Amino acid sequence: MKDLFGKALLDYQNGNYSEDLITETNISDEDSLPLPYLFRDFKEMPKLEQKALKLCKGRVLDVGCGAGSHSLYLQKKGFELKAIDISKGAIEVSKQRGIKTAEVISLLDETKQFDTVLLLMNGTGIFQETSQVSKYLTHLKSLLKPKGQILVDSSDIKYMYEDEDGGYWMDMNSNYYGELDYFLSYKGEKETPMKWLYLDFDTLKLACETVGLKCELIEEGDHFDYLARIIDA
Question: d(Cα 102, Cα 65) in Å, to the nearest integer?
Answer without folding.
Answer: 9
